[in-house]
Amino acid sequence: MNWTSAMVSPAAPRRFLEPFHGKALMPPPVWLMRQAGRYLPEYRAVRAKAGSFLDLCYNPALAAEVTLQPVRRYGFDAAILFSDILVVPDALGQRVQFAEGEGPRLDPLRSQRDLARLNEDATRPKFALVHETVSRLRQELPHDTALIGFCGAPWTVATYMVGGQGSSDQSDARQWAYSDPEGFQRLIDILVDVSIEYLSGQVKAGADALQIFDSWAGSLPDDQFRRWVVAPTKRLVAALKAEHPRVPVIGFPRGAGVLAPAYAMETGVDGVSCDTAMPLAFISSQLSGKTVVQGNLDPLLLVTGGHALERRVAEIKAALAGNPFIFNLGHGIVPETPPENVGRLVDLVRGSHR
Ligand code: 1CP
């Protein structure tokens, strides 16, 4: 991308936003989940001097810098705020730590009594730091690059708060939800309330669009999915729409499978980010044209590259062309990804070859 000319053309439209106005662009706009992160040497350099991972999330200058790094390298159509979904429990007063190479660790909440440890009024100073990152970014980004704000969905954030760490089956949260649904509902309600404030602040600070990451949506049977995924997301989206009717909201209900169309229709989101396992034929028949579709290349193809990458990019573009579509991965970039493969992907999506 020509960074300088982008900055001096204030009238340039943000291509990323056009699918939300019903436009089917080919080539589609492109950005990638976890486009900032450990696969980039310049990220690792900033990370090393930031202190802890949360120190980086709460440092507006450094968080803005690592957000900009992949945009400078690859000219993505959108930047995503650098932060983490676990900033919300941390801001609520739960102890959150990121042990090097081990993922997050939280002091787990196990029952309604533990909710007394959370303080909704305590979130402001920490949210303010993230909001400052967003305003810096809106000033520093090229005018035609959109800025995406985000949060974790209440269900997914709750799985970490209850389990105390990442898990493959989210059993602690699922068991609480079965054994004491009223108590678990209180936790979900707190998360919806603070997420409204957190995301609304991101829009006021300059975010053009929002994404709600529900990475563990796929662990629930359909009745539980409707109660803990669809209903809280619907309340969150409705509150955001009341304040910011023109700001698109994308949901990422990872693993939702055949429930994804119900999620798309019932939550009020403007777009659905499709995970790696969702078949292209299903996306194209059940979601395309009804909502903005985003997705869904396997992040491991970015590690291996080569012809398999080329073939799949072409298949995704062919299957999803003709309806509003944003190219992305089906989950985040993994740290082993060679940075040159990301450049190659962007070229393939945009139709230029090197
Ligand atoms: O030391 C490091 O650098 C830690 C690696 C890392 C990074 C780069 C973590 C820890 N979080 C992030 C940034 C991050 N996380 C972003 C930044 C913006 C971008 O996409 O570039 C975003 C959007 C997230 C969202 C996030 N955090 C999700 C939802 C998306 C997904 O990947 O499913 C989840 C589940 C988390 C929790 C989390 N944070 C970090 C890790 C390693 C994890 C997963 C833990 C686990 O379940 O085991």
Commentary on this structure:
- The chain has about 350 residues and is of the alpha/beta class.
- It has one domain: Alpha-Beta Barrel (TIM Barrel).
- It has 15 helices and 9 strands.
- Strands 1-4-5-6-7-8-9 form a 7-stranded parallel sheet.
- Helix 6 runs parallel beside helix 9 (about 180-205) and helix 10 runs parallel beside helix 11 (about 260-265).
- It is globular.
- The chain starts with a helix and ends with a helix.
- It binds coproporphyrinogen I.
- Coproporphyrinogen I binds near residues 150, 166 and 213.
Short description:
The protein is built from 15 helices and 9 strands. By secondary structure, the chain is an alpha/beta fold.
Present the secondary structure layout.
Blueprint: H1 3-7, H2 41-50, H3 53-57, H4 60-74, E1 78-80, H5 87-91, E2 96-99, E3 103-106, H6 124-140, E4 146-152, H7 154-163, H8 171-179, H9 181-205, E5 209-214, H10 222-243, E6 249-253, H11 260-267, E7 271-273, H12 280-286, E8 292-297, H13 299-304, H14 306-320, E9 325-329, H15 339-350
Parallel strand pairs: 1-4, 4-5, 5-6, 6-7, 7-8, 8-9
Antiparallel strand pairs: 2-3
The structure holds coproporphyrinogen I (1CP).
Task: Estimate what percentage of residues fall within beta strands.
Answer: 5-15%
Number of domains: 1
Arrangement of strands in the largest sheet: 1-4-5-6-7-8-9
Number of strands: 9
Q: Kindly name the structural category.
A: alpha/beta
Order of helices and strands: HHHHEHEEHEHHHEHEHEHEHHEH
Which regions have little confidence, pLDDT < 50, spanning 5+ residues?
Answer: 1-9
Major pleated sheet: 7 strands, parallel
Which whole number gives the mean pLDDT? 95
First and last CA, distance: 15 Å
In the CATH hierarchy, the architecture is Alpha-Beta Barrel
